[in-house]
Amino acid sequence: MNTHVNPEKLEIAQQTAPAPHTARKKMFIALASGVALIGLGFGAYQAFVGSKHVTTDNAYVDTDAAQVNALTNGPVKEVRVVDTQTVRKGDILVVIDDTDRRLELSQAQSTLGDIERRVRGYQANNTALDGQIMARQADVVRAGAELARAKGDYGRRLSLAGSGAISGEELSSFKTGLDAAQASYAQAEANVQGAKGSYEANNVLIAGLPLDQNPQVTAARFRVEQAQVALNRTVVRAPVDGVVVKRTVQVGQMVQPGTPLMTVVPVQQAYVNANFKEVQLKKVRVGQEAELTSDLYGDKVVYHGRVTGFSGGTGAALSIVPAQNATGNWIKVVQRLPVRIALDPKELAANPLRVGLSMNADINVSR
User: Fold this and answer.
1) Which tens digits make up the pLDDT trace of 274-295?
2) Among residues 264, 287, 319, which one ends one of the domains?
3) Are residues 153 and 127 in the same domain?
4) Residue 50 pLDDT > 60, yes or no?
5) What's the CATH number where 183 sits?
6) At residue 20, what are phi and psi to the nearest 5 degrees?
7) What value, to the nearest 5°, has the Cα angle with vertex 185 and ends 180 and 191?
8) Which DSSP helix (H) or strand (E) runs through 83?
9) What gap in Å lies between CA 336 and CA 359, rounded to an integer?
10) Each residue's pLDDT tens digit, 56-91
11) Are 81 and 262 within 8 A, CB to CB?
């Protein structure tokens, strides 16, 4: 077997074969170039895109739900809705038995009628007493005339008594007539004062006001209105458009004012509470535009919204048991602040959402 190797061919092969350290060097250069390109790409993205947007997937649909409570007492007669049912504002939800409320209304109306008749009687008495005062004043005028005549008769006869032209008996008779006239005049004046006192006392009862403004009538009409309102409240209506949730009322249940019956969620007025990290909020302002997607519909449905406000405190600070950081083993945790984002009503109508659904929020902070 011939094992002879041509020295020239071996030298040429050694020259053409790459050295191991040269291959590794090229690999490291390529890797470094790739990392540099990735870094440059990330930096460019941050400069032109990332720095103009803040995003979070810690966002949820919310709305201002309307609590429906009983506003009067009584047994429940009808319940006309169930959970998940869509209702319009003004639709009847619950009917409470109105027997007691109708009786209260009838009693209040009867009391009002009685008081109105009584006040009208007082007003009629005022008219009569006014006429009586005028009659008594006429009596005073007549009594005054009689008194003046009696004084004149007695004065003339008294001047004649010294000459003996008039007897003592006749003079005594005229003196008696004068005394009687004075008594009649005093009685007439007393009668006038009595009539005026009766008039004033009766006028106090009507306060010198017309029937519609009389305090007793006004109070009675207020009680009628109260009874009417209580009767109207036996029919419980939807306060807003929305969907019925948490219905707890049942037929036959005895309810009192304030008893929770159900909740109506106005889903057409839903908004998003996006919980951004505090380090993301430096450039976020009210009025900035936002794009949102929901886990319900996926990325194919994009909602357009606008920042409308910031919560007054973080979730941790406003929790029932807030964290106490005044301890020796305190560890700083990045906090999240809820940001309220209003949704486009047309988009919300086309793709309805429900309270509590997860959302992804992206706020454009470049404007």
Assistant:
1) 999 999 999 999 999 999 999 9
2) 264
3) yes
4) no
5) 1.10.287
6) -60, -40
7) 125
8) none
9) 16
10) 999 999 999 999 999 999 999 999 999 999 999 999
11) yes
Q: What domain range includes position 238? A: 66-98+232-264
- Judge if 117 and 189 occupy the same domain: yes
* Phi then psi dihedrals of residue 273, to 5 deg: -100, 110
Tokens coding 5:
């190797």
- Same domain as 222, residue 131: yes
Q: Which tokens is 141 given?
A: 């005028």
If 0-12 CB within 10 Å is exposed, 13-18 middle and 19+ buried, where does residue 59 land? buried
> Distance from CA of residue 289 to its chain's centroid?
31
The verdict on 85 and 186 lying in the same domain is no
Q: Are residues 166 and 249 in the same domain?
A: no
Cβ–Cβ < 8 Å for 184, 146: yes
Whether residue 360 is predicted with pLDDT greater than 60 in this model: the reply is yes
Contact (Cβ atoms closer than 8 angstroms) between residue 87 and residue 244: yes
Instruction: Map residue 317 onto helix, strand or coil.
Output: coil
Q: In this structure, are 225 and 107 located in the same domain?
A: yes
Query: How much is the average pLDDT of 18-34?
Result: 71
**In this model, does residue 234 exceed pLDDT 60?**
yes
Contact 344, 270 (CB under 8 A): no
How many Å apart are CA 302 and CA 267, to the nearest integer? 18
Between CA 226 and CA 214 the distance in angstroms is 18
Say which residues have a Cβ less than 8 Å from residue 263's Cβ, sequence separation at least 6.
65, 66, 67, 68, 244, 245, 246
**Total number of domains constituting the chain:** 2
CATH number at residue 246: 2.40.50.100
pTM for the structure as a whole: 0.64
327 domain residue, yes or no: no
Question: Is residue 51 included in any domain, yes or no?
Answer: no
Q: Are 255 and 96 in contact (CB under 8 A)?
A: yes
pLDDT of residue 310: 94
DSSP state at residue 355: T
Looking at the structure, tell me whether residues 166 and 184 fall in a common domain.
Answer: yes
pLDDT value, residue 108:
95
* 295, part of any domain: no
Per-residue pLDDT tens digits for 178-228: 788 888 888 878 887 877 777 676 666 666 667 777 788 889 999 999 999
Q: Would residue 176 count as lying in a domain?
A: yes
Could you tell me if 202 and 125 are in contact, meaning their C-beta atoms sit under 8 angstroms apart?
Answer: yes
